[in-house]
Amino acid sequence: QEEALAALEAGGSVLVAAPTGTGKTVVAEYAMERALRLGTRAVYTTPLKALSNQKFRDFRAVYGDQVGLLTGDVVVNPDATLRIMTTEVLRNTLLTTPRDLDDVMVVVFDEVHYLGDRERGSAWEEAIIFLPRYVQLVCLSATVPNADEIAAWMRSLGHDVTLIEHVERAVPLEHHYYHDGRLHRVLDGDGNQVGHLAGVGGELRAPNGAVRRLAERPPTPVEVVRALAERDLLPTIYFVFSRRAAEEAALSCEGLDLIAPEVGEENQRWALAQLAGLGAEDLTLPQVVNTLRLLGRGVAYHHAGLLPPLKAIIEELFAAGKLRAIFATDTLALGINVPARSVVISEMVKFDGQERRLLTPNEYRQMAGRAGRRGLDELGVAVTVYSPWVSFEETFDVARGALLPLKSAFRPGYNTFANLWQGPGDEERLAAAMAASLQEFQLDAEIRDLTEARNQLRKALNDLPSGCLIGEADVLGAYESDRKELRRREAAADEVRREIREGWRRIAQRHRPMSRGEVREALNRCRGGEVAHLADYGWAVFVDHAAGAGRFLCKAGLVAVHRPQDIDYVKAGPPRIPLPEQPTAADWPRVEAALAGLDLREAMEVVSRYQQAVAAEFQPRYGSRLGRLEKLEREIAEIRPRVEGSACHGCPELQRHRQIVRQRARLGRELRQVERSLEHADRVRRERARAIVRNLRAVLESLGYLRHGHPTSKLEELRRVYDANALTLVELIDA
């Protein structure tokens, strides 16, 4: 809850996937209250009219006339600040009168797993797709195992969705199996198997005729409810899968004494008071008569065919603890606040509109999740019942089975097309809407993976500190830039110096006063103290031969010269300069003074003519390089103080900061690449969606709803029929 509220306060959306009874509703209530506090409006959507009615009563009790209700059947205060509605009403409003939602800042989608409903999932997807991106979404469900994928889809639509998942129930849940007149515990509150009934159930599906005759009679609702009462496991919700079965099961329990007579009489008096608005004729309806009679016994039935006032009465009495058993269709499992100590799932097979099949783990979990009242029960109990058509093993597998991932049931409808299509230029707009569906998102694994990669890269970039970590935002960037420029210019200067040096040497080689052979011969005759002129160091004094090189003492100290071409001039023999046994750089001043006292005019003239000849040839050929070197040295002198004076220079954290900068650059490159790939994949997806739109348009053109892309009067009829079979209905009406 804290994580969800923080995300809402930050302006984001949330998807909360958590078991029943863990407080998801608090998140939705906070979002609604926050909308009021900010002076905006909010919408709370549910999949059922019954659930919308209950939410309307709950919010109306707190906020009074600020709450409205729109369910298709009932419209109360439609311009209210907080509006409760079925999701289909929201979807229809978005298609026909979207301006009615201009100041809505938050929309709650309760039981968001209805996205996967075969009949109604398209309406949920369209509602989420067509909502403006600035609207905060609050999506709640107990049975969305692939919540990360659903959140990623919503993010791909532009909503900043925080996913909050919680798997632990507030009240532990045990699973029992009713067989042979008693309850058998098969799973404890921690989900551990503690019982097994091998060979029980499913006998009538066995191929062996002899085994079939051994099938037992299925237990009656009276037997099961009596067993629950004996174990103090009431109140209970007894789930059956048809309205008729719910009524018959409830009426069969009329003879049970589940509540005190005075409580039953009070139930009946209160119910009659709530029905005061009904006419005398309505009070004689069988469902009214039966309900009033059953309320006196602490029993009721609940399904979509009940009158709304009766449903409200039953829900409020059950929530108040004045009813002990409700026999209901599985719609009661969808978020209506009627928790019980136990639930009974009467059969493990249901008809889904196309076939009779086993319940899915999701459907089972949705119903079983109603067991266990937070703050009242230490344990909830889910009971399944013996059936000769379904084995215990099959029942057990469903109870323990992993939740199935939510899969899109999106089907582009003709009514949606009709309401969005204004003219020939709308093809691209409709294609974009189709391409944005969860179905397309799930079909296109590449887009899903790329979207997740993009989100992870964005998060990684956001998690990295920005700018320099030790001071002003750009100081590290400026330091790195200056340092790079300094290195570049120093390298360029070194290269120019090398070119100048090599050029000088090539020219000098042609003008040297002594050939290499003459230098070698002179060096061989030198014994120490002879005067020489070195190409790189100027005047020097020969010291000795060492390791194939001549050693000289000069202003740079003691140097070894290996190549004859690096010696301009050497004079073997006197005059010689006396040297110590082990001369060092410290001896140079005395040696230099001794040189000054010698008559070296002849040697100096030779060296001077040589240098002049070299300079005369060198300047025209290498003068531009000298100018470039001077320019580089000025730039170096300008940049170096900035580098050495930067706060980053010598910083002990510099390497870590550089690593962060490199990470940011790498992540930025990867993000740009992923975004380019995502754009390409999205173009492919949009083209696929365009093909769907073209097919829808072709059908409507052929039936006269469009003429050359322009709406006809028939399209206006189609726009007003909000049904999955809208086109068929309009065609039948016009036939």
Describe the fold and architecture.
One of its GO terms (biological process) is nuclear-transcribed mRNA catabolic process, 3'-5' exonucleolytic nonsense-mediated decay. One of its GO terms (cellular component) is Ski complex. Residues 220-421 form the Helicase C-terminal domain. GO terms for molecular function: ATP binding; helicase activity; hydrolase activity; nucleic acid binding. Helices cover 48% and strands 15% of the residues. It is an alpha/beta fold and 735 residues long. It folds into four domains: 2-168, Rossmann fold; 173-400, P-loop containing nucleotide triphosphate hydrolases (Rossmann fold, 3-Layer(aba) Sandwich), CATH 3.40.50; 412-469 and 654-735, no CATH class; 471-652, no CATH class. Residues 209-213 have low confidence and may be disordered. An eight-stranded mixed sheet has the order 4-3-5-2-6-7-1-8, sandwiched between helices. Helix 4 (87-96) packs across helix 5 (121-130) and helix 16 (427-435) crosses helix 23 (654-702).
List the defining traits of the structure above.
735 residues, alpha/beta, Rossmann fold, 4 domains, 8-stranded mixed beta sheet, 48% helix, elongated
